[in-house]
């Protein structure tokens, strides 16, 4: 077997190993370890949106909202038609307490996957949080919106 073929096979095997270790660490709620492994996997294959989505989830679990958002936005750029990418973005915006942006991201996710109850619930919660926040800052607008929209 040619050396470059062996190198590619071992590279692919290592890539699979790193992805699996990230998944195992995340499933075991070892989020810092998972981030390390997913970062290595992303270095090996920066076009895999699932890796960015998974690392975004880990950042979110650690309340590292800015990092979660960065990965989610990169994920959306790679796969704009993937509901989970927009869902991850919504989660990050929600952690940042930007409920308008969160509801926008969840809305896109819900349009892409209208039967997903988790996305629907996240969208409703983000909208309610945004209206509650608006009620404090601009009560007249919040009341007008509440009268015209059912959440």
From TrEMBL:
The answer, when asked if Amino-acid biosynthesis is one of the entry's keywords, is no
> Which top-rank group of organisms is this from?
Eukaryota
Could you tell me the keywords of this UniProt record?
A: TPR repeat
Query: SUPFAM superfamilies, from UniProt?
Result: TPR-like (SSF48452)
Q: Which protein, by its recorded name, is this?
A: Serine/threonine-protein phosphatase 5
What Gene3D superfamilies is this protein classified in? Answer: Tetratricopeptide repeat domain
TPR repeat ranges, renumbered to this chain: 83-116
| Keyword Iron assigned | no
């Amino acid at each position: 077997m040619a050396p470059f073929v062996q190198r590619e096979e071992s590279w692919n095997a290592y890539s699979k190993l790193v992805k699996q270790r990230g998944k195992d660490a995340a499933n075991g709620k070892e989020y810092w370890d998972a981030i390390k492994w997913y970062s290595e996997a992303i270095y090996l294959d920066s076009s895999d949106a699932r890796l960015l989505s998974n690392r975004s989830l880990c950042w979110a679990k650690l309340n590292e909202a800015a990092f979660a958002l960065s990965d989610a936005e990169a994920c959306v750029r790679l796969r704009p038609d993937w509901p989970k990418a927009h869902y991850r973005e919504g989660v990050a915006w929600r952690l940042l307490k930007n409920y308008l942006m969160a509801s926008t991201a969840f809305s896109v996710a819900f349009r892409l996957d209208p039967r997903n109850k988790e996305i629907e619930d996240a969208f409703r919660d983000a909208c309610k949080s945004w209206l509650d926040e608006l009620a404090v800052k601009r009560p007249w607008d919040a009341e007008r919106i509440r009268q015209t929209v059912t959440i």
